[in-house]
Structures are given as structure tokens and as C-alpha cells.
Design goal:
Shape: globular
Structural class: alpha+beta
Helix content: 55-70%
Oligomer: single chain
Largest sheet: 5 strands, mixed
Number of helices: 20
Distance between the termini: 46 Å
Strand order of the largest sheet: 2-1-4-5-3
Number of strands: 5
Order of helices and strands: HHHHHEEHHHHEEEHHHHHHHHHHH
Length: about 400
């Protein structure tokens, strides 16, 4: 592979070294270095030696190997955007580790997005038009909220993986930094999405959609607060199409006044909540109505949805409070064993926890070392070794 020799020189300059000094440390001749410059290639084994000598990060190693560096950006609880340049070295390192453990086989997007990107660029700030362009491109109904099945269908066409994991458990939340709720990994036209499972169901759905839409803007706009706000509005329109809101809550007439009958609004919402697989929420609906100019922030309807009905749902609807059942400490190996038996390997949960299936498979096949397994969840190494032995015995008993 072509290697970035200029990048190597820049690293050496920062450390006050020259190529000749590096040759001495590697115990090779200056002629060998000249060969690298002539061929534009550094032998892989030499890259490994250089990485050890200079204590390089995985991204720096990728650059030396001529591989597109890994990039990532986070979405936070307050809807903000945090790039890799805005997080600490510790957080950056952790993000790379999690990527390597779960997304090492990142597949390139082969779907042609040129026409969609062009039309999105021409649509400017018209979030309703952009949402309709996305629906039309991927043949998604425009008169109903976009479901999980819809979003996974789009991601499948894009060759993009999207999974849920507890960020706190895998240490993708660092004390003193922004509360990350989703991360979009990208490398050379390939993408993967990881969403924090410690969210309400609708929040997790919204986070996943938000990161997916970033892919459509990846090459046409620079990251900014304005772009984040626009993508949030697009997400709102995808989950709550304006036409759907009018038909469902305004009896087909946007000039009607549902705020005069809040009891009816609540009953309608409760039915929709059950019918739409829990992907909608009172606050999300309130924001979508506001963005679509069907109500205002100070209206009785907005206040009722955003505050009163939201609090009622928090108290009365258990499934509204948190997504998934993985947000407890995995430091106890018994908790991990129970989690696998009751959820990961439960026939009713097929395809729900693929990253955990991969984690166990890699652990037992030796491609993931016990120390790495323990590090992922903050488990003691001794517990990880015992857990591995238990799982191996279980597998042996099943095969006999």
C-alpha cells in the first residue's frame, strides 16, 4: 500500500528526529529508507516497528499504511455535535478502541447518493422538502412516521451498520465531557453508527435517524450548529410528517384548533403511541408541530404536549422510560451470564443484540483477548477468565 512518507517526516520533525536517526533505531541502512522514498511504500513490518518506537496511535498507523484515517463525531443529549477534534485524547483513544472491537469489518457504501445529494443541496433549508426527497429516494411512505424498519431498510441499502450499546458501560461517556448519545464513524466512504441504549425509545430512534441523515450531508456541507438544527428538523419531519400530523391531530384541517380539546389530543396520542411501536413521544410531536408552524412554543397545545403529557407518560408507561435492558453494571460476571441467557441468546431476541453475539464469539475464538473483553465493560481480568471458562464449558456440553 502507498504510505504517507510526508506524514512520517512530520511525525519525526515533531519528535526532533530525522529519517537517518530512525534508520539507526530500526537497524536498517539509509539505502533502505531511500527505497521507501523511491517506491512510496513502507513495509508493513517496518510500520509496526515504527509504531512501537514512536508510540503512534491507530489513526497514525493507518496514515503510514496509506489507509484513510478513522473519523468520528458525536451527538449529545442536548442535540449538539462534537467532532473528534473537540474531545480529549482519552476520549479519542476510547472511540478508536470501540471501533476496532466492533466495526473492524466496515463495509464501503456502494449506493449511489449523487442525485440525492444534489437535490438536497438545491433544497437549501427546506427541511420538509429534504425529508420528502429522502422518502422518495428510498420508497418510504410519506403519510406515516418513519419506523425502525424503515430506517434499517435505508441503512441496509447504504451498507451502514447501526447498533445500540450502553455508552456508560463501554466508557464512551467520559466525566467532564459532553454526554454522548450517538457516534457516527466514517472512513473512506464507509460509515457505522452506535447509539446509546440508555435513552428513551423515541430518543434512540431519533439519534439513529439523525446520524443517518448526516451521511447524506457528508460531502455537501461543513459541520455547524446550523446544520445540526436543520438535521433535527428533517428528523422531526421524517418521524412526524406534517401531513400525518394534520390528518391525525387536526382532523385533516390545519386551521382547526385541537388545543381546545386536549383530552382528545391525549387519547389520539395514546392510540398512536401504541400503533407506532413506541417511536413517537409527546415532546417530539410538540417540536415537530412547532417546526411545521402548526403551533407555537407558547400555545396551550405545545405546553400540554411538551410538559404535561410528557410527564404523564414518564410515570405511566414503563416502556417509555428507557430503551433496552442492558443498562446495568456488567462488572459482575454473573450479571453478564444472566444477560446473555435471558436476552442475547433468547430465541425471542434474535438479531436484537448482534454486537454482544460478536463479542462472545470473538472472545471464545481468541480474536478478542480476555484483557480487552474485561476492559470493554470494566470487569476484573480474573472474572473475565472465569466467564470464558464457563462459556466454553457450556458450549462443550451443547455439542456433546
Amino acid at each position: 500500500m502507498k504510505s504517507n512518507l510526508n506524514f512520517l517526516r512530520s511525525i519525526l520533525t515533531e519528535k526532533g528526529l530525522k529519517l537517518t536517526a530512525l534508520a539507526d533505531q530500526l537497524e536498517i541502512t539509509s539505502q533502505a529508507i531511500s527505497g521507501w522514498e523511491k517506491d512510496g511504500v513502507i513495509p508493513t513490518r517496518r510500520v509496526a516497528q515504527i509504531a512501537n518506537l514512536l508510540n503512534l496511535s491507530s489513526q497514525q498507523v493507518d496514515r503510514l499504511m496509506g489507509v484513510e484515517p478513522l473519523h468520528f463525531s458525536y451527538r449529545t443529549k442536548n442535540g449538539g455535535h462534537v467532532s473528534e477534534n473537540q474531545v480529549s485524547g482519552r476520549m479519542k483513544s476510547r472511540s478508536e478502541i470501540i471501533f476496532d472491537r466492533f466495526f473492524g469489518d466496515l463495509k464501503k457504501n456502494t449506493y449511489d447518493l449523487k442525485a440525492l445529494n444534489c437535490n438536497i443541496g438545491l433544497a437549501g433549508e427546506d427541511f420538509i422538502k429534504i425529508a420528502n426527497l429522502i422518502r422518495k429516494e428510498f420508497v418510504i411512505r410519506g403519510d406515516a412516521p418513519m419506523s425502525d424498519d424503515d430506517s434499517f431498510s435505508i441503512l441496509s441499502k447504504l451498507n451502514v451498520k447501526a447498533f445500540f450499546m450502553p455508552f456508560n458501560q463501554i466508557k464512551l461517556n467520559v466525566a467532564g465531557e459532553a454526554d454522548q448519545t450517538a457516534v457516527l464513524y466514517s472512513r473512506d466512504g464507509s460509515f457505522s453508527i452506535l447509539v446509546d441504549s440508555d435513552r428513551t425509545i423515541d430518543e434512540a430512534h431519533f439519534d439513529k435517524l439523525h446520524e443517518m441523515i448526516h451521511i447524506f450531508f457528508f460531502e455537501i456541507r461543513d459541520q455547524s450548529k446550523e446544520l445540526e438544527d436543520l438535521i433535527d428538523k428533517i428528523c422531526g419531519e421524517l418521524v412526524y410528517p406534517k401531513e400525518y400530523i394534520i390528518d391525525t391531530f387536526f382532523d385533516g384541517d390545519e386551521t382547526s384548533r385541537p388545543s381546545f380539546n386536549l383530552k382528545k389530543v391525549r387519547l389520539t396520542f395514546e392510540q398512536e403511541y401504541r400503533n407506532r411501536r413506541f417511536i413517537i413521544s409527546p415532546r417530539g410531536l410538540a417540536r415537530a408541530m412547532r417546526d411545521s408552524e402548526l403551533t407555537t412554543r407558547n400555545s396551550d397545545l405545545y405546553v400540554f404536549l411538551y410538559k404535561e403529557l410528557n410527564e404523564i407518560f414518564k410515570q405511566d408507561t414503563p416502556s417509555f422510560s428507557k430503551f433496552g435492558r442492558m443498562n446495568f453494571s456488567f462488572q459482575d460476571r454473573n450479571a453478564m451470564i444472566d444477560f446473555y441467557k435471558n436476552h442475547v441468546e433468547n430465541p425471542q431476541c434474535i438479531n436484537t443484540y448482534p454486537l454482544y453475539e460478536k463479542l462472545k464469539s470473538d472472545f471464545l475464538s481468541e480474536s478478542l483477548q480476555p484483557s480487552d473483553f474485561a476492559d470493554t465493560f470494566g470487569m476484573k481480568l480474573s472474572d473475565a477468565m472465569i466467564l470464558k471458562a464457563i462459556w466454553r464449558n457450556e458450549a462443550k456440553e451443547k455439542s456433546e
